[in-house]
Amino acid sequence: MQTASKKVVNGWAMYDWANSVYNLVITTTFFPIYFLAVTGGAGEGHRVEFLGRTFVNSSLYDYTLALGYGLVALLYPILTSIADTRGNKKNFMRFFCYMGALGCSLLFFFEDGRLWLGILAFMFACMGYAGSLVFYNAYLPEIAAPADRDRISARGFSYGYIGSVLMQAVGFVLVTLMPEQQGEAIRITFLLVGIWWFGFAQITFRRLPAVEIRKPQKGNVFKDGFTEMGKVYREVTKMPVLKRFLRAFFFYSMGVQTVMLAATLFGSKVLKLPDTKLIITVVLIQLVAIAGAWGMSRLSAKLGNIKVLMGVVLFWIVICVAAYYTASLPEMGINAEYPFYGLAIAVGLVMGGIQALSRSTYAKLMPETKDTASFFAYYDFTEKLAIVIGIFSFGFIEEQTGSMQNSILSLVVFFAIGLLWLYLALARQRKTA
């Protein structure tokens, strides 16, 4: 196959520009800070009442994310089966996009005393983001030849980082200009994120090629969805390299996604860093991640995808160990600010690259098929299930032990298991070459 025109490729990448503002501004920066403030503060052990139970506020945040991603993961088989056999994947991508943008916009009304609204809106935003990505990812093998998939996948992530940094800057300016109404400034930022996501996504929807709508088929869409996922599973089990890669991806994604989702909570609760410095740090991570994504795509062309992924996962283990010891610095009377900045730069170097390279590696290893949505649903289901386990474990360990520092050790285990499976995938790949 041939790679699609530059207009189509850039249109596809623009969806990363559109939706990445949710991932950075909502889940990584402003919302964790705002959520902790509304629910009692950023100190260790702060608790909040919800649904008749008392939670550590940061653990409630983690549980909400886990539930949102879990619900979408359960829907994946059904939605992608419909998209592949009964309808247009672009319509489903558009539906989840609008759900996510609406959820972000509704966070404007989240204030003290409206915890239920904040939780629901946050879940809507999370589900919209996760739900739209499976259809977005499924377009990659349709618009890019195998030789171009690393480069185009990296372009999407790079667009996302650039766009999200711009939106992050807007939010930072609002907070700076409204120091006496910081909460209102952050809530306005939530609204702007929803508008940004909705507005720029229209470029993608106009440029992505129309997908042939197949004739309706008889049968139960719920049963057919899981049947289709079972077919993908059986195909994967026949491909030893892909099977081992997906097992590795499952475990190291538990670590990668949890770090991305919990980094701000860690800086705020454990290291006691001011909000403004946390915001600047997250922007720094995004800027470094742009170079990391492009650099890793070029490195993979020379060394091979799995080798590069092994090196990156090993680097993640070093980051987690360093974070564990950094968390002890405040107790020793040592300022942890600059070590945290060092960790942020290290995370940025490998954050975008591992995501882009994982997606393109899967696109290369998967078989030629017209059911791309179903195959990428399997990939995204693997990732979302990893997020559910990873972020839930992170919150649960903190709640049970009283310290987020202990949660970091679980991430080291996840990365180590992922590294082992990558090694086994590489060994199998060499054997079959």
List the helices and strands and how they pair.
Elements lengths: L5 H33 L8 E4 L2 E4 H29 L3 H18 L8 H24 L1 H4 L5 H29 L4 H26 L13 H17 L2 H31 L4 H29 L1 H22 L10 H29 L6 H30 L2 H29 L1
Helix pairs in contact: 1-4, 1-6, 1-7, 1-9, 1-10, 2-3, 2-4, 2-8, 2-13, 3-4, 3-7, 4-13, 6-7, 6-10, 6-12, 8-13, 9-12, 9-13, 9-14, 10-11, 10-12, 11-12, 11-14, 13-14
Structural summary, described in words:
With 433 residues, this protein is mainly α. The protein has one domain: Growth Hormone, Chain: A, CATH 1.20.1250. 81% of the residues lie in helices and 2% in strands. A two-stranded antiparallel sheet has the order 1-2. Helix 1 runs parallel beside helix 9. The protein is globular, with a radius of gyration of 21 Å. The model has no long low-confidence stretch (mean pLDDT 84).
CATH superfamily: MFS general substrate transporter like domains
The main sheet comes to: 2 strands, antiparallel
Strand content: under 5%
- The order of strands across the largest sheet is 1-2
Radius of gyration over alpha carbons?
Answer: 21 Å
Terminal CA distance = 23 Å
Approximate helicity band: over 70%
Mean pLDDT: 84
What class would the helix/strand composition place it in?
mainly alpha
